[in-house]
Design goal:
Elements (H helix, E strand, L loop, with lengths): L1 E11 L2 H17 L12 H4 L11 H10 L3 E12 L5 E11 L9 E4 L3 E2 L4 H21 L3 E4 L3 H12 L6 H10 L4 E19 L4 E18 L5 E11 L15 H21 L2 E7 L2 E4 L11 E12 L6 E17 L4 E7 L14 E7 L4 H23 L1
Parallel strand pairs: 4-6, 4-7, 5-7
Antiparallel strand pairs: 1-3, 2-3, 7-8, 8-9, 10-11, 10-15, 11-14, 12-13, 12-15, 13-14
């Protein structure tokens, strides 16, 4: 943490309000304009005893300021206060603002806010809660972000209040509390719709019936830059889940199908977010095998990825903003091994091209082409195929 001294001015119809406006300007200069959240201070602050006679700084006022911003006023000195003929008050302050900078090389922090349900159905509300938790877990396992879970806002606010109300706590300690709860980016969204049903299929020749589960989820989401409010990425996805998708969960009795839908959907949304932000990158090679910079449960053995070579930076012709890089398809690979932090892919096609690739950091990226089948899904598919062959054999016998 460092303390920055800054001289600022403020004006208003009262001295206390003018001091508050000056502090808003001071915090904005040191920690960025997002700190203008001080504007949300209620008018009761003007009438309270937070600011003593002569503009004297008090600990009560510091607690209020710190609790609403990512910055903290360590202290300030009233340099001048003037009242114009029309009663307007202008003040000049020397404020000392605390700033806690992130270490270089650290990951961006991402706050996962609770997804809301578009209707009041109990199953959809349950899906929204489970989806939020699962999405947070999956993004954490990717190691791309410092994930801040905002599922239990009341508990977080309670923890913060204990420190902020402690008059003996140092400014640096209070600042650490608010910084830990702040984020660079935030993801939020809505469960627009969700449904689950079972469909019965009967094989008369075998005199047997089978129940196939089917689920649907429609989810919209967006990622915002906390400082500017800019939407970095947004999407609206509609997913259909069928019998094979539920195969891994069917043995878990007592679990709501909407919990299973939430788990399945969270994996797909997490992949969308990561693919748009940090696509998998080849970081090593040995023969026709490549090492990728991500493992965990979002990369699965058997999945097939398209491999692209990064080209020149592209810019929007109207805004001149960078919009990505050229991507040239060079082949495909299939994942053969997965660990907690890395994975290994075997080259699939074109055969022989893998040995000619020049592996440089960030030169090749991978995007999911075909998802891996789960073990249970493969068993389920094989079982259905065997039953179909048995049915056909019975028909032939007749």
């Amino acid at each position: 943490m460092e303390i920055i001294a800054v001289e600022v001015s403020g004006s208003a119809n009262t001295e206390t309000q003018a001091i508050k406006n000056a502090l808003i300007e001071a915090i904005g200069r040191v920690n960025g304009r997002q700190m203008a959240a001080l504007e949300r201070l209620t008018n009761t602050w003007e009438k309270s005893r937070d600011v003593g006679p002569g503009g004297r700084f008090t600990s009560d006022m510091q607690n209020k300021v710190t609790s609403m911003t990512n910055g903290a006023v360590e202290s300030y000195e009233l340099l001048a206060s003037e009242v114009s003929n029309d009663g307007w008050v202008s003040v000049r302050l020397l404020a000392r603002i605390a700033r806690l900078s992130k270490k270089r090389g650290t990951r961006l922090s991402l706050a996962v806010y609770p997804f809301i349900s578009a209707n009041d159905g109990p199953y959809v509300r349950q899906l929204a809660q489970v989806f939020t938790r699962a999405l947070s877990t999956r993004l954490t396992s990717s190691r791309r972000f410092e994930v801040i879970d905002r599922q239990d806002q009341r508990s977080l606010q309670g923890e913060r209040a204990v420190t902020l109300k402690n008059k003996s706590a140092a400014t640096s300690e209070k600042l650490n509390v608010t910084t830990d709860l702040s984020a660079d980016l935030m993801v939020s969204g809505t469960i627009e719709d969700a449904s689950f049903e079972t469909r019965q299929i009967r094989f008369d020749a075998m005199d047997r019936s089978f129940v196939l589960p089917e689920g649907h989820a429609q989810i919209s989401f967006m990622i915002r830059d906390v400082a500017s409010g800019e939407v970095r990425f947004a999407g609206s996805e509609s997913y259909q889940f069928k019998g094979a998708d539920f195969a891994d969960f069917q043995s878990k009795e007592g679990i709501s199908p909407y919990v299973l839908i939430a788990q399945l959907a969270s994996k797909k949304i997490a992949r969308r977010i990561l693919d748009a932000s940090y696509p998998l990158t080849i970081v090593g090679a040995k023969g026709s095998a490549f090492t990728l910079n991500q493992g965990g449960d979002l990369v699965e053995v058997g999945a097939v990825y398209s491999v692209y070579e990064n080209g020149e930076q592209l810019f929007d012709p109207y805004t001149q903003e960078p919009i990505g890089r050229e991507e040239f398809l060079v082949g495909t690979m299939r994942i053969s091994e997965v660990s907690a932090k890395t994975s290994v892919g075997e080259w699939v096609e074109p055969v022989g091209s893998a040995y000619r690739l020049d592996i440089s950091p960030g030169k090749y990226i991978c995007r999911l082409k075909i998802e891996a089948e789960s073990n249970a899904a493969r068993v389920s598919v094989e079982t259905m195929k065997r039953m179909q062959r048995a049915k056909e054999a019975l028909v032939d016998d007749w």
